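name: query_chain
kind: protein
chains: 1
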Amino acid sequence: MSLLTGMFELFSNFIYYGTLLLMLTALWVFSLTVILDVPRIARALQVLQSPKDNQDYQDYQDHQQSLKLELAKIDLEKVKMEMEMVKEKFKMQTDMEKLSIERETSKAKMDMEMATNKAHLDMEQERLENDIDMEFKKFQAQPKLGTEVQELKNEVEQLKDQLKEKL
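structure:
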């Protein structure tokens, strides 16, 4: 893996996981604000104090029931938020798995392309080397011009000598 590819992959992972962390933090803060609804809790604590008058006992019980109902609603919202968080977490995990699979697929494709290109280059290099060897052998197989000229000179001398003898 080249340095540039490694740096790009590190940077993309940093951005991806940073974004996921930011989203999870925002979801966590939002759920805490819903769960810790301070005005509702303050009202619930005021009502849960002991009643001062016996006449207000029925009102106290009604109010206590309404507070219990509100607490049940809060619990329901809390459960809904937890379910939503679980869904988001599952969705993020599947997205991460998909990205991981895509990354591995891309890496495998790049590796295959590199291997194919290398094989083509090796074959081309071997073909060129064979062509060079064949040309060199052809060149060596050709009679040398210097020796041919010398042979022709020798023949001419022999013919001259023969001519002189005949004359």
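note: The mean pLDDT is 83.
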